[in-house]
Every structure is written in C-alpha cells, then in structure tokens.
Design goal:
It is a single chain. Helix content is 35%, strand content 22%. The chain has 14 helices and 15 strands. The protein has helices spanning 13-27, 46-52, 67-72, 91-97, 112-125, 139-148, 189-192, 195-211, 227-233, 302-305, 321-337, 347-365, 373-378, 383-386; strands at 4-9, 31-37, 62-64, 78-81, 101-104, 129-131, 153-161, 215-223, 239-246, 251-257, 266-273, 276-280, 284-288, 306-310, 371-372. Strands 14-13-12-11-7-10-9-8-15 form a nine-stranded mixed beta sheet. Strands 3-2-1-4-5-6 form a six-stranded parallel beta sheet, sandwiched between helices. Helix 1 (13-27) packs across helix 11 (321-337). It binds nicotinamide-adenine-dinucleotide. Nicotinamide-adenine-dinucleotide (NAD) binds next to helix 1. Residues 9-15, 37-40, 43, 67, 82-85, 87, 105-106, 132, 134, 170-172, 198, 318 line the site of nicotinamide-adenine-dinucleotide (NAD).
Length: 395
C-alpha cells in the first residue's frame, strides 16, 4: 500500500480518537498525517497533539485555523471531518470537488438540504466517502448481521437507557459561537439536533446494518425537558420513543432516554426473526427450535435451544477504539485501491440513517405523524424540516 496523506478537521473529543488511529496507521507505515485544521489555537497545540501521537516529530504536521485553507493546500488524499454538525460551511463540498476522500463524522449536518448538497458533490466527483458509523466494524455486531443474513427479521426492540451529558465537556469553544457556556454542546438541541440525531443515529444505523434493509417510515414522540430545567440540563428532550418501519417489513422500537441526575446507563436489545429470538447476554445468543415437528410433543428446555452467535463480544461497541481504527484503516484501504466496496457504508448509503433521525424529530413536531423517509427527503411538504435557514430544531 502506498502512503496516503490523511488530514483531520476538528481536534476535539472525537478528533483525538481519530488522531490516535492515524498515529497507529502512521506507525504501521501505511499513511502520513498531513495536516490538522481547527479554528481554536489551543486545540492545535503541540502539547495536545502529542498526547495522542507516538510519532516524535509532531511539527511535521501542518496546522490550519481555516479548513478551506487546508483543503486548498492540496496536501491531502483523504480528510476526516470531526467538527460539530452545525458548523459546516461548504468544506465537504470543496474537498469532494478536489476528489479528496472523505470520512465525515455522523451526523454530517443537522440539515438534510446541506447533506444532500454534500452528497451531490461527492457523487459528481465519484470520490471515496464514508460516515463515522464505527459500530459497523464491530465483530460481535457483524456476527449478528451474519446470523440474520439468511432470515427474515420481523422486529427489533432496543432500549438505550443513558443519562444526560454530565461530563461531556467538549473542545469547541461554544461560548464564542452563541452556544452553551459550559461547552457541553451535545446537551443543546441547536447543536446536537436532539440526542436521537447526535447519538441515537448510531443505533438507527446499526439496525439497518443488521437487517440489510433501509428504513421506510418513522413515527416518534418525545418527552420534552421542562423549560425551567433547560439552562442547567440542556434543551434536549428527556425521553424519545421512536418506531421505525423497514423496507423488509421489520418494525423496530427505539426507546432512548437522557434523564439528568440519574447516571444509570444500560442497553437492552432483542431481535425477533420468524423463528428465533436474539438476545444480548454475555455472549450474543439466539433461541431457536430447529426440529421439523411442530408443535413439539414436549416443550423443549430453553437451554437446548440456546445457540451462541458471538462469543464474548465487546461490551461497548460504540466506544471500542479498535472499531474506529478498523473503520479508518478500511477508509484508507478503499482509497488506496480505489475500491468503494471495501467500506461498510458510503456517504450516499448513510443518508437513510440521518434522514430517519431527522424525520423522527419532524414526526415529534407533527404530534407523532407517520413520515415516509423518501417523501421526507424529496417532498415540498417537508422542505421546512430540511432547511438550514428555517432551522426547526429550535421549535
Ligand atoms: N462516531 C462517534 O462515536 C462519535 C463520538 C463523538 C463525537 N462524534 C461526532 O464527531 C463530531 C465532533 O464531536 P466532538 O465530540 O469531537 O466535539 P468537540 O467540540 O469536542 O470537537 C470538535 C472540534 O472541532 C473544532 N471545530 C469547531 N468548529 C469548527 C470548524 N468550523 N471547522 C473545523 N473545526 C471546527 C473544535 O474546535 C473542536 O476542536 C460531531 O459530529 C460528533 O457528533 C462521533
């Protein structure tokens, strides 16, 4: 593999994880880290960069306070974008125009019109592109996909019980950009686009990966946080109830919470196929009765129906560093061989995930109306929900 030059935009919480991956790829002699862009000088300090990188000469990496200057410097074969989703301003389109490979962190923007523009530029240049859904690179989750590949998935129930962002102090100086003074921008609807867009998108996308099917419609209802609590706890809703209908007929329930002062965190996942129940225990298992006789004369013992799908999977596929590393390595390999098929999702394919969470917001604003995703992407009826200018997130 020749050494590709990779740059990074946004050296914040997520950017540091990307930089660690790039450092490893550089140590493996697979890439060169070309440049980093960040509008805040303190985020570009050698001290901060060397916290993550092993390479001795951090000064070889070019630094830019303006992303477009980095792109126009023509030193990058590929760029990882890890900036807040409401701060984009044509950078992805410019990089695509120059046929630079693009790995954009999810959500690529909070506004579908902007995302569609980015996608058009990527399609026109036919450049390699992907979006930061690292859970697609998790071995345990991929074992689930393999198990489901010859079955019909009828239903998924997922409860993601998380607490409000209490320790997520970010690196963007939001106080200088009209955002929160404590820099926890994920708690602010105007910046996060709601927690379903900011984080629930990962769970939405992984259901598409497992089922190998796109989302066809969504219905959602949220419990808003009382206004008098929002200054302290943020403006995101406290709880989200989202129902997705898939093209293959599967119906999924995503229950998602963000209470403050709870600190409890746990996930439950159940996948129902025509003839089995998949459950996430210490191993991922399926309960399935494979004998031909039906109904059986004696009720089988559950332990005889238990089949391990994935042994000892990662407890936290989203946070697992190896998954992000594998995603970036695959991005680099896809660029090197000019082979998009290596990637587990490309920009165009990611649109169904981002459109579904944005349509969940719209459904909530429309009192739980059922929204068809294709219509949401194209119909005049939903244009106000797609528009950056109208910015309905704040409603
Ligand atoms: N895939 C994942 O698991 C995962 C995890 C965390 C965050 N993210 C995503 O990564 C992105 C960044 O989030 P974060 O947690 O690192 O936030 P952050 O605020 O900690 O970091 C963002 C960085 O971008 C910089 N920045 C701000 N405006 C910019 C601009 N206009 N151009 C270039 N850089 C700019 C900031 O200075 C900061 O250093 C978001 O889209 C977020 O949703 C993804």
């Amino acid at each position: 593999m020749s050494k590709l030059k990779i740059s990074l935009v946004g050296l914040g919480q997520r950017g540091m994880v990307h930089l660690k991956s790039l450092g490893r790829l550089s140590d493996e002699d697979l890439i060169e880290i070309a440049a980093i862009a960040d509008p805040f000088e303190e985020n570009l300090s050698d001290e901060k960069i060397s916290k993550t990188l092993n390479i001795s000469d951090v000064s070889k990496i070019k630094k830019f306070s303006n992303t477009k200057d980095l792109i126009n410097d023509n030193i990058s074969d590929g760029i990882i974008f890890a900036m807040p989703p409401n701060q984009h301003n044509g950078e992805i389109e410019l990089a695509a125009k120059k046929s630079i490979g693009i790995l954009a962190e999810k959500p690529q923007s909070l506004f579908l019109d902007e995302i569609l523009k980015q996608n058009d530029s990527i399609n026109s240049s036919n450049t390699i592109s992907t979006v930061g859904f690292q859970m697609r690179y998790d071995d345990g989750y991929t074992d689930i996909k393999k198990y489901l590949s010859n079955k019909w998935t009828a239903a998924i129930t997922m409860a993601v019980l998380g607490a409000v962002e209490g320790h997520g102090v970010k690196h963007t100086k939001t106080e200088t950009l009209g955002g929160r003074s404590d820099r926890i921008w994920t708690a602010d609807k105007k910046w996060s686009g709601t927690s379903i867009v900011e984080n629930g998108i990962h769970y939405t996308d992984i259901m598409r990966y497992w089922t190998n099917s796109d989302i066809k419609w969504v219905q959602a209802n949220y419990t808003e946080r009382p206004e008098n609590l929002q200054d302290q706890e943020g403006s995101n809703p406290i709880a989200y109830s989202v129902v997705y209908g898939f093209e293959n007929g599967c119906v999924a329930n995503l229950l998602y919470t963000k209470p403050a002062k709870s600190f409890f965190s746990e996930n439950y996942e159940y996948i129902i196929t025509t003839h089995s129940t998949v459950k996430f225990e210490d191993d991922y298992v399926a309960y399935e009765y494979l004998d031909q006789d039906w109904p059986p004369s004696d009720k089988p013992d559950l332990k005889d129906l238990r089949k391990i799908i994935s042994k000892n999977p990662s407890k936290e596929p989203m946070m697992e560093f190896e998954n992000t590393y594998k995603m970036i390595r695959t991005f680099v390999e896809a660029m090197d061989s000019n082979d998009k098929s290596k990637l587990r999702c490309n920009y165009e394919n990611s649109i169904n995930s981002i459109a579904s969470v944005l349509a969940a917001n719209a459904s909530n604003l429309l009192n739980g109306d059922k929204i068809n995703i294709d219509e949401f992407i194209t119909s005049e009826k939903f244009s106000k929900f797609r528009s950056k200018e109208k910015n309905l997130i704040t409603e």
